[in-house]
Amino acid sequence: MKVLVIIVNYNGSRWIPKVSEALRSEAEALRKDGVVLDLFVFDNASEDGSVSLWTDAWPGVILQGSEGNLGFTAGNNAGFRYALEHGYDFVYLLNQDAWPCEGMFSQLLSCFRPGYALLSPLQMTGDGEHYDPNFARDVLPKSRPDVQGTVRQVPRVMAAHWLVSCAALRQIGLFEPLLPLYGQDDNWCDRAAFHGFRVGCLDTARGIHDRAARKEPKDRIIYRNYYMGSLVRLLDIRRPLWRQRLFVCLFTLVKTVKYGSLQPLKYHRSLRRQLKEIRAARETTRKPAAYV
Q: How far apart are the C-alpha atoms of 209 and 128, rounded to whole Å?
């Protein structure tokens, strides 16, 4: 069995020692069971020496990169393509600020069953003592136990830690290019459900997400929560586009009042201009392996 870990790196040097150490430990344990764990790093024009650090930390690392910051989607899609072209069984999406706890990979692999597109471990804070706040808020309340035990079936889970079946990836496709930075994980989970796959979290496996504490400016929050969130809703093929457009119109008014800003109205005009692309992407979703 072959697993490709995909990390999209942008000035992530501060985490490389911890991440590489944890991955090496997991790779050694998996090797005893005949599982090959390879590492693919896509660097988005980092300026902190990340590339050389990864080369030193992981001999044989598969490195690709860009001359500018292409974002999360392009980097992961490059890794997806590499995995599909080189016969991997699974890919593991790992944020640059995330790493596995001991035994995480073997637990996820042993519990992965047909019908699932992806499994996530429980995602924990940097100290390992608490759930990641977004994971606790967005995932745990919506989870329900699978009939076979420790797997929680969830509608979506953030892509800081994702074990993805390449067989499912071939049917569902790559990340949606209309979502370069945010929302691509939500959209991929929506598409997985459309194609009849499940998404799950495993109670016995844990992964760390050392989310950097940072205060985002309001315009960035509006971009992520309103604009990208609206795109995810409009791209959800499971619901009629007319209904999603009506929801986004109401969402625009709510967010305009909430943020005390006209920016949602400007983004709404952008969304209207993108309707042709949105319709094309929704139609593409209907066809298995359309993005590959």
A: 9
